Amino acid sequence: MIKKKLEPYSVLEKGKKVSFGNDTPVVIKGKGTAQLKEKVKARNVLYVDGLKHNLLSISQMCDQGTEVIFRSNGCTVRDLDTGETVIKGRRTLNNLYIFEEGQQQCYLSKDDEHWLWHRRLGHLSFSQIRKACKYQAVCGLLDIKIPDNTICKSCQFGKQTRTNFPEKEGTASKPLELVHTDVCGPFRTRSPRGEEYFILFIDDFSGMVWLGLMKHKDEAFEKFKAFKALAENELDHKIKCLRSDRGGEFTSNEFF
Ligand SMILES: [Zn+2]
Fold it and tell me: Domain 178-255 belongs to what topology?
């Protein structure tokens, strides 16, 4: 807290220190009462030289008969006896809760320094952050301690992998046991012979593909007969099952 805002103010003997998020001890120079609002005072406010912002201790606020409620967009300090709201704060874009009373600003630090650095450095592990501290590799990076609990929700999600797809069921154990087929087209550009459709036959067992060009969809059965003769002769197996997406081209009686 700014010294001139503390009234009454008393100088403290040397040696007393206070530590912040990064465990850096800072000397307390004095103590006093700060007027936060017309009727609201904060007692036992410490004056620390070199601190850039005025910080309000939540535990001290609670010890002085108020409750502090934090919400996603702001916070409220309420008097426990009367239930009256004594101060309201808003949350800034960099996640600080600010009490604004004219020129006077009190900041509440929300983030611990070590977690802030973990996020700033792209979720770098704490052992690597310690290394960066040791070699002074990052500008402005103070001596960051490894926190007791180093589990980061975002890191945990980032490390998760998706489970395998289940094993395919009902696959063929020999050639032509299962053949997949589909008709594609019509295409805007026709072949030199005027075909604008093609039919595919894929052997499930070997992955071999046969392709036939067609001028019309209703040539599908003719193409199938040609493919059947060719494939059965080539592979010395009989087609057991033909599987399609049940488009109209395969529902004609010829196929059954
Ligand atoms: Zn993380």
Answer: Nucleotidyltransferase; domain 5 (3.30.420)
Quote the distance between the C-alpha of residue 181 and its chain's center: 41
Q: How far apart are CA 256 and CA 253, in angstroms?
A: 5
127 C-alpha to center of ligand 1: Å?
13
Residues lining ion ligand 1 (Cβ < 5 A) are: 123, 152, 154-155
Cα angle 92, 96, 97 (rounded to 5 degrees) comes to: 85
Domain positions in the chain are: 3-108, 111-146, 178-255
Q: Give the global pTM.
A: 0.36
Measure the N-to-C terminal CA separation of the chain; round to a whole number of Å: 89
Cis bond before residue 192 (omega within 30° of 0):
no
Distance from the alpha carbon of residue 154 to the mean position of ligand 1, in angstroms: 5
Of 38, 31, 1, 33, the closest CA to residue 16 belongs to 31
**For position 106, what pLDDT does the model report?**
44
- Model confidence pLDDT, tens digit, residues 105-129: 444 444 577 888 898 899 999 999 9
The pLDDT of residue 206 is above 70: yes
Query: What is the Å distance from ligand 1's center to 125 Cα?
Result: 8
Residue 75 · residue 89 · CB < 8 Å? yes
Residue 62: pLDDT over 50: yes
Going from the Cα of 120 to the center of ligand 1, the distance in angstroms, rounded, reads: 10
Closest by alpha carbon to 204, among 168, 175, 230, 234?
A: 175
Asked if 244 and 180 count as a contact pair (C-beta separation under 8 A), the reply is yes
Q: Tokens in use for 182?
A: 């589909």
153 C-alpha to ligand 1 centroid (Å): 7
Q: What is the pLDDT of residue 111?
A: 53
